[in-house]
Write a structure and sequence with these properties.
By secondary structure, the protein is mainly alpha-helical. The protein has helices at about 5-30, 35-65.
Length: about 70
């Protein structure tokens, strides 16, 4: 059974992470002066990489279940 956090639990975890990510993006823009489009592309690349990772992990999990 997978853990399903409550809204309050999610808020405790996700809000600080969101604030950290926004601060990192602000710092990147300040340091590099690269502009928002670069930062958006950077974040989109992270999302795509994470989706691929999740897909890989699911496939590995399915293979482990099939092989057990």
């Amino acid at each position: 059974m997978k853990f399903k956090p409550s809204s309050e639990q999610l808020e405790k975890v996700f809000n600080p992470a969101y604030e950290d990510i926004m601060a990192i993006c602000d710092e990147m823009d300040f340091e590099t002066k690269c502009g928002n489009e670069f930062i958006i592309k950077f974040l989109e690349d992270i999302v795509e990489d994470y989706k691929l990772l999740v897909k890989q992990l699911r496939e590995e999990e399915e293979n482990e279940i099939k092989n057990s």
